[in-house]
Design a protein that fits this description.
Layout: H1 11-23, H2 28-35, H3 39-51, E1 55-58, E2 61-64, H4 67-99, E3 107-110, H5 113-125, E4 130-135, H6 159-168, H7 183-188, E5 192-198, H8 205-216, E6 220-224, E7 230-233, E8 237-243, E9 250-256, H9 259-274, E10 276-277, H10 292-302, H11 307-314, H12 318-332, H13 337-346
Parallel strand pairs: 4-5, 5-6
Antiparallel strand pairs: 1-2, 3-9, 4-7, 6-10, 7-8, 8-9
Helix pairs in contact: 1-3, 2-3, 5-6, 11-12, 12-13
């Protein structure tokens, strides 16, 4: 069956374990005789099984143990080791690049969806100060077809989850918006997160709900009508992602620390300066101004959201949104929504 060899046990160890499971406990002499093994082979096999938590001693007999708990614990430990290895690789790689840049790749081309997703999570996981991102939302299929929600929900779930969902979705069904793995852990750990979202994302109520939840957890979010790409920038890595080719949903470029990494951070800061806060600050003492709900309405209008999207967010009808906009226009003496935005900006309402 060769089930235990991948875990470091020998074929003989698996043979011994299956014999004990089927026939019950016995000693080393009986095992050697029945299975036609040498004394050393039995000794090595039983040691392997004890190391895996699959075997215990009862007197001179070897007692087989249930595999589920032992192997689940082993799997969890291997996961922790893999996580530690990935983190060490990124951090030591960054140190190596700083000392030997002429020998280090500045840009790596990622051609598989799973690679893009893992590198997006790694970019976040290896950052201890602040992660910044541009987000056009999840990417569905060929280049140029973004369709959804979070910093970079271009890699919107773990590799196994994403591949399962991709195979079960119809070609016309958009990728469901999800929080990028690692974002919530980063926020919980005190890492700053700033994101500029394309306004198209927020026209999906489920995407808006996810974004607002992240804001509640500490994310700072802004909206800009024409965000051009999905970009995540951490301390030592940056990831640009786009649609993949063939059967792959995603492709990407992983950028290591250096001049290009710095310029990508600068690109984000340019969009951040132009974008509108998604959740405006509450009004404070000062000249009379709009209430918090009107400020939120103005922010949504400035972000380019449709009346239908704003209505879904505020829990009212599009007709009510139209009426409130008309009231604000009248209040500020604006003949158009453009003039309304200008007047609101002049008064510090945005």
């Amino acid at each position: 069956m060769a089930l235990l060899t991948a875990l470091g046990a020998s074929d003989v160890a698996e043979q011994v374990y299956l014999h004990l499971v089927e026939n019950g406990p016995c000693d080393s002499v009986e095992l050697a005789g029945v299975l036609e093994l040498g004394e050393g082979e039995v000794s090595d096999a039983t040691r392997d099984l004890r190391d895996l938590g699959l075997l215990a001693r009862r007197g001179v007999d070897h007692l087989p143990l249930p595999p589920s708990a032992a192997l689940q614990a082993l799997a969890a430990e291997r996961d922790r080791q893999a996580e530690a290895a990935r983190t060490a690789s990124a951090r030591l790689g960054a140190t190596w690049a700083a000392r030997h840049l002429e020998f280090s790749p500045v840009v790596e081309v990622l051609t598989e969806t799973a690679m893009v997703q893992e590198m997006a999570a790694l970019t976040i996981r290896t950052t201890t100060t602040e992660v910044v991102a541009l987000s056009v939302g999840p990417i569905d299929g060929p280049p140029g077809r973004p369709d959804g929600a979070h910093p970079s929900s271009s890699s919107s779930s773990s590799s196994s989850q994403s591949s399962t969902r991709s195979s079960s979705r119809s070609p016309s069904e958009p990728v469901p918006p999800e929080v990028q793995p690692g974002i919530l852990s980063a926020l919980a750990g005190g890492v700053g997160v700033r994101v500029v979202y394309g306004s198209r994302i927020l026209q999906r109520p489920e995407a808006m709900a996810i974004v607002l939840d992240c804001i509640d957890r500490g994310e700072r979010a802004r909206v800009f009508p024409d965000v051009p790409l999905n970009l995540v920038v951490g301390e030592s890595l940056a990831l640009l992602s786009t649609g993949g080719r063939g059967g792959e949903r995603l492709a990407g470029l992983l950028v290591h620390r250096g001049d290009l990494h710095t310029r990508l951070r600068g690109l984000f800061e340019s969009f951040w300066a132009m974008a509108v806060p998604l959740v405006p600050a509450p009004s404070d003492a000062g000249p009379p101004g709009p209430g918090d709900e009107s400020r939120e309405l103005l922010a949504c209008l400035a972000a380019g959201l449709t009346d239908e999207s704003i209505a879904a967010r505020l829990g009212v009808s599009p007709r009510t949104i139209g009426r409130r906009v008309a009231e604000l226009q009248q209040q500020l003496g604006a003949r158009s929504r453009f003039q309304l935005g200008v007047q609101a900006l002049r008064r510090g309402w945005l």
